[in-house]
Amino acid sequence: MLPYLFLYAYFAVLMASLWKLFQKAGKPAWAGFVPGYNILVWLKITGKPWWWIVLFIVPGVNLLMFIIMNVNISIVLGRRNYKEYVLMTFLPWWKVPETIFSKDAYIGPIPPEKRKRNLFEQWGDAILFAVIVATVFRTYTFEAFTIPTPSMEKSLLVGDYLFVSKLSYGPRLPMTPLTFPFTHHTMPLTTSTPSFVDWFSQPYRRLPGLGTPERGDAVVFNFPEGDTVVANVQNQSYYQMVRDMGRKKVSDPNTRIMNRVGDDIVSVPMGGLLVRPIDKRENYIKRCVAVAGDTLEVRSGFVYVDGVKETWPEQAQFSYNTAFKVNYGERTQAMMKERDDIGIGDMGSYSLQNGQRPVAGEPVNVALTNAQVQALEANNPYFTQLERQDNPRGTERGSKLPIFPNDKRYDWSEDNFGPLWIPKQGATVQLSLENLPIYRRIIDVYEGHDLVVKGDQIIIDGQPANSYTFSQDYYWLMGDNRHRSQDSRFWGFVPFDHVVGKAVLVWFTKDPETGIRWKRMFSGVK
Fold this sequence. Notes:
A hairpin with a 2-residue loop joins strand 18 and strand 19. The chain is globular. The protein is an alpha+beta fold. The chain contains twelve helices and 25 strands.
């Protein structure tokens, strides 16, 4: 609330002062009180192009534009020194009226022929303008992302660089507008220093888009469980760590845990907790398999929506348990990659670092597409019989209740899951203690209500409740690499306000083993 009071106070001071500036510049005083038009006049008398007014409607950028224009008040009234510029930047509540209502006459902007700017000032102006333009572009049209994990193999590959269209579903207005340029949530060269300030934020708003997420779309979104992360173990879900270890241990910055750092597994301290707003949570990309209003079920790894089996993505993978027929050396590795496009990353958690290579007869779990399986069934020089992984209900994979809704009343597994109805905006569901684990995080976290359970009674915002009406749409997103993906099966629904955009183009790609994939560059995302 305090930041908004300062902001509103600034606008009040500005509106009460511009008329005097306009009068000094020979413009009608009344223009200072007309929203929008006063910005155009302000731009004109400070020598700035009229189209800058567009930048005043861009959240985040508009705050910077007001600072720039404050400085230009000093310039056109003849106060042209760094002290005045600094005061206008940091103390506009006092400095704007003090300057405008002084006896200083309007002398106009500095003529181009009299501008004596050093190299630093010239580069500073160019960089500032580039930052503004790039920020507007990446916020409202397209933004570049990279694929760091194999959860979408072989549809989207590790090393792919994507353009994500924010126009497809409508660009979100920045919810955390004060942030260091071209960063997401962390300052460069640090691992946990926030690159944003959370004391000034905006409510969720989205401009109209070309549509909404549809089944089959490759969707980029903010990780729903990423509101809290452990500083030194950011690649693991905080909530799953709490289920496994207890909240007290996870919250203690000195508690140590084994974690992967590069190619090694080492013991690291927790390092404390980080809290992130929606638009600063980690970016994920998954395939949309069910939309609001659908009923989803997973049977032996295949998704069924409203009872209809999904159209299996051509390059999607299942994992297969098998064993090597031969010793795995560099020659075998090269042959597998060249002949069947089976890379090191397709063999899951098996480590090939530090000379650790499997020998004949050693078990391995390998991720394969249907086409790869068919080719290996015809001629398989590497593996024994392939057995597709199919975890029955109740499989916990070494963690406590890892499968959504992470409650002992549900025995679902990643391969045998549901049926589950996907919440839709405006729809009402009957609540009970039995189904509350499915909807609790939606009600309490995503839609911001106070939910408690007293005995056998559900209380929402202080009132007993036996039903709930959803205020936004939700989606179910899964990785194409079905056994190597942390997705909705583990943490649940994706709210529409977490959706960033649709992946549309691979503009660059580099295989970690073989280098640039020339044929894949500038290809569309399927």
